[in-house]
Amino acid sequence: MRKIEFLDTSLRDGEQTPGVNFSIKEKVAIAKQLEKWGISAIEAGFPAASPDSFEAVKEIANTLTKTAVTGLARAVKSDIDAAFDALKNAKYPQIHVFIATSPVHMQYKLKKTPDEVIASITEHVTYARSLVEIVEFSPEDATRTEKDFLLKAVQTAVDAGATYINIPDTVGYTTPTEYYETFKFLIDNVTSDRDIVFSPHCHDDLGMATANTLAAIKAGAGRVEGTVNGIGERAGNVALEEVAVALKIREIYYQATSDIVLNETFATSELVSRFSGIPVPKNKAVIGGNAFAHESGIHQDGVLKNPETYEIITPELVGVKKNSLPLGKLSGRHAFITKLQELGFDEVTDAEMKELFSKFKVLADKKNEITDADIRALVAGTTVENPEGFQFDNLAIRSNDDGTQTVTISLRNEGQEIIETTANGSGSVEAIFNAIDQFFNQSVKLDSYNIIAVTEGIDAQAEVHVTVENNDTGTIFNASGLDFDVLRASAIAYANANTLVQRENAGIITKKISEKANPEDPED
């Protein structure tokens, strides 16, 4: 049975989602979880895009021990050099070179002839191969490229030293039948004296990303590229968790398997959701809140008699399980540490453990029983926090005779300096946000505000997601906050979002070079 590799591009393509801006610490934490999940390669970023992206790729390359680390590069030598420099300490470095091959991209974006594109492939894949052993090549917008020219471009890359050939459905245009035929055509006609691995990279514009990816596997693809939770620009990328579980459930049909540790799926999804600020829809396949819920009486009756009547995926398969060791306010440090180990958090430092246990005791005073989801939320909210600027510290609310609310917000910086600000609002959340606006004194527009309960019940922790727009630049930022109290969670989320805006205004978050920019005009 074939073993399918998984390349995750949540930290590169996924970060192109409007509003998603992972910090370097968040990227490293996600990369470590992806390694635990069984991902074979991580596209850690586009090193030439910005100093932040370069440093993130470098940090991830320094951290991972089992997973290959890939840097994206346009067919430009300076891009390839940046990728190589960022990957110098990677145990398994890879460089991913791409150039557009469809008529519309060559004419309007690249302003290159087909012959010039072929020459660029030869030059830059050869150059990348002189620096690292493993080079991946992508003909951007492959599914809108004429087949004969696509074959020529791919063969040129293989002849120049590429080992992995990625066939991206850049705009989510293709269908499963067409994509299958494209892979069969290339696999049957590309020649090489070494093994070449083909991979799909699907966007979900027409809702067919998972189907297209599985069709490519059926045609002989050996590696899958996508993101956790399907994050990405426009309608997003293929959701890797969907492909991984589909391969498990339909293993006989696809005659393929993978190294994905499926019971780490839920924890991986939850981490990416929290750091991206994008909640997972309830009806999301595999890891959505309703994935294992049965509303229909007929369905409920069938499941009670035999779960296989309506469940093809068990909750335990993807890491959703009942508590085997319930925790409460009387639980001690040993029981807490045992629970962390049971959930796979075995790399928590002593300092982090002390902080986690302290927060656990505070939460346990407010909840009768602490669930696995509560513990995961505590860990995600403690081990990685944005250290720049001021963070939420505390709040006090007072109701006024006229029905308005007055809120005093305390914000604290790394030096433990605390600043208080007070504002009014027609409701508590409005007053909180007005106070934070008053403190940061920035032109910010709130685009969305969502509250999610981490667990069931009236005593659930609240996870608040906000999306804001920096009115001075038009940049969108997502942020989240977690707390037992929904108002505190709202304050944390909004303060985090404002910190991102503050960093952009201060030039800490810099303008990125888009990988869609013309290589001849990299400042676009």
How does this model look, in words?
One of its GO terms (cellular component) is cytoplasm. Catalyzes the condensation of the acetyl group of acetyl-CoA with 3-methyl-2-oxobutanoate (2-ketoisovalerate) to form 3-carboxy-3-hydroxy-4-methylpentanoate (2-isopropylmalate). This is 2-isopropylmalate synthase. It catalyses: 3-methyl-2-oxobutanoate + acetyl-CoA + H2O = (2S)-2-isopropylmalate + CoA + H(+). Pathway: Amino-acid biosynthesis; L-leucine biosynthesis; L-leucine from 3-methyl-2-oxobutanoate: step 1/4. The chain has 524 residues and is of the alpha/beta class. It folds into three domains: 275 residues, TIM Barrel (Alpha-Beta Barrel); 62 residues; 115 residues, Double Stranded RNA Binding Domain. The protein has 17 helices and 15 strands. Strands 1, 2, 3, 4, 5, 6, 7, 8 and 9 form a nine-stranded parallel beta sheet that branches. The chain has a three-stranded antiparallel beta sheet with strand order 10-11-12. β10 and β11 form a beta hairpin. α2 crosses α3. About 1% of the residues have low confidence.
Shape: globular
**Ends distance:** 46 Å
Q: What number is the mean pLDDT? A: 89
Proportion in helices: 25-40%
Main sheet specs:
9 strands, parallel
The oligomeric state is: single chain
| Radius of gyration from the alpha-carbon trace, in angstroms | 24 Å
State the CATH architecture of the largest domain: Alpha-Beta Barrel
List the total number of helices: 17
Q: Which structural category fits the helices and strands?
A: alpha/beta
Low-pLDDT residue spans: 383-387
- Total number of distinct structural domains: 3
Q: Give the total of beta strands.
A: 15
CATH homolog superfamily of the largest domain: Aldolase class I
Q: How large is the share of residues in beta strands?
A: 15-25%
What's the CATH C level of the largest domain? Alpha Beta
Function: Catalyzes the condensation of the acetyl group of acetyl-CoA with 3-methyl-2-oxobutanoate (2-ketoisovalerate) to form 3-carboxy-3-hydroxy-4-methylpentanoate (2-isopropylmalate).
Enzyme class: transferase
Domain Pyruvate carboxyltransferase: 4-262
GO molecular function, one term: acetyl-CoA C-acetyltransferase activity
